[in-house]
Each structure stands twice: as structure tokens, then as C-alpha cells.
Amino acid sequence: MRDLGRGFGYLMKGQRWVAQHGKQYGVGLLPGLITLLLYAAALVALALWGTDIVGWATPFADDWSSPWTGLFRGFLTGLLFALALLLSVVTFTAVTLLVGQPFYESLSEKVDISVSGFAPESGLPLWRELWISARDSLRIVVRALVWGILLFALGFIPVVGQTVVPVIGFCVTGFFLVEELTAVALQRRGVEARERLALLRARRLMAWGFGTPLAVAFLVPFVAVFLMPGAVAGATLMARELLGEDTGRAPDDDDPRGAADPAAPGGPQAATGGRS
């Protein structure tokens, strides 16, 4: 259970890091704001024309007697909007990371430098990094959608669907968020998607401790915008622990200095650059 606290500690430590680096925080807000505007426009459009879309897709209900046509299409419209909201929550991080790839790469590098004095580099051109990020994000989104549809269906089970299923949903969403966020730092270290997933599964409690409260907060996209820079910073610190690198002051460390030991593995004196 200690790993749950460590994961939450990295989330908080990431928020503290960006609070102490105002310039990096300000730049890190831009991708989230852009993504939020895009999603808001799409949801508004769906709210305005969702009924027309459902009506076009269900011509067989035109001849139904009242009130069944209205009830049926009203239910489908509500279901369509609910699925759109679910899709927004699940994909918000992936899209924001894709839009802000250069910004978050820079932020993650600054976190690495603040801990060990250097930042590992992938050595890949930007277009290649964007392609890998988009490909891996798509895979995560597809898996998340499968889980989302399954949990949505289980939500109709009496009692269990209103108690256990939402908790499982937040844990699943949190795990996928962590997978996406740690990819920023791990991709620079040449860690492939399968290996990243194996690392997180081995420390599943720590991933839940980081990602589950973040998933709850991300239900409000406006909040997600302000938490994203700190989430990337915290995920970078957590990625360092997953790989056994120095993390400076650990989330539950009592050392008030919060500085990396220069002689520690991964510290400035041991740093030589390149992939870990």
C-alpha cells in the first residue's frame, strides 16, 4: 500500500515543481488550452445538432406512435452525449500531449536536469517522435475505449453498477493517464511502449496512486488544463523511479533539502548523457 502514497506524492511533487518554475508552467498551459477549446467546440456542436444526428440515423422510428419516437431518440441523444463526454475524458490527455509534444518534452527535460544535471535524449528527429507519440497514444485510446464501453455496460447492473463500477472506472482511467504521461520521459530514454506498460504493471499501486486522483480531477477539463504541466513533471519523476534512477527527494522523504545527491547513481557527477 506504500506505493499508493508514493504515486500520489509524485503527483503533488510535480505540481510543486511547476509552481516553483513559473515560466515552464505558463508555457505548459498552452497545449491544454488549445485542446480544451477544440473539445468545447465539438461538444457544443453535438449539443446543438445531436438530435438531428440521431434522427437521421434512426429513420425506422419515424412511423412509431407517440411518445415512443421521442423517448427512444431522446435516450439515444443522451447516450451519444454521454459517450462523447467519456471519449473527451479518455482522449483529452492523449490529444493534449500530442498537441504539446515539444512543450512537454522541454518541461520534462527541465525536470530531469533539475534532479540529475542532464536530460536523456532519444536522438530521434521531431517528426519521428511525433509519429511514435501519436501511434502509442492511439493504441492507448483504443484500449481505454474498450474498457470504457465495457464499464458503461456494467453500469446498468443494480447496486454494483452504481458503486463498484465507478471506482474501477477511475482506476482504469488513472492507469491509462499514467501510461500516457510517463511516455513523455520514457520515450526520450528509448523505452518502447510494451516495456513502458510492463514497468507500470509491476508498480500498479504507484500508478493508481498517481493516476486515479488525476482522473477524478480531469472530469473537469478546465481543471485538467491547469494540472497538466504538473502532471507531466510528476510523471517524469515517477518514470525515473521506475527505471531505478535518482529522483532527488522522494515523495515520502524527510530530507528538507529536496536535492539530489551529487554522488548518487544518476546524479550530476555520474551523468554522461544519452539514453538510460
Short description:
With 276 residues, this protein is mainly alpha-helical. The protein has helices at 2-19, 22-57, 68-99, 101-116, 126-154, 160-188, 193-202, 204-217, 221-242. Residues 254-276 have low confidence and may be disordered.
Outline the fold blueprint.
Layout: H1 2-19, H2 22-57, H3 68-99, H4 101-116, H5 126-154, H6 160-188, H7 193-202, H8 204-217, H9 221-242
Written overview of the protein:
With 276 residues, the protein is mostly helical. Helices cover 75% and strands 0% of the residues. It contains nine helices and no strands. The chain starts with a helix and ends in a 34-residue tail after the last helix. The model is unreliable at 254-276 (pLDDT under 50).
Mean pLDDT: 80
Approximate shape: elongated
- How much of the polypeptide forms β-strand, as a percent range? under 5%
Would you list the SSEs in sequence order as H and E?
A: HHHHHHHHH
Helical stretch count?
9
Number of strands: 0
Share of helical residues: over 70%
**Terminal CA distance:** 28 Å
* Poorly predicted tracts of residues: 254-276
Radius of gyration: 21 Å
The chain-level structural class is mainly alpha
The major beta sheet can be summarized as: none
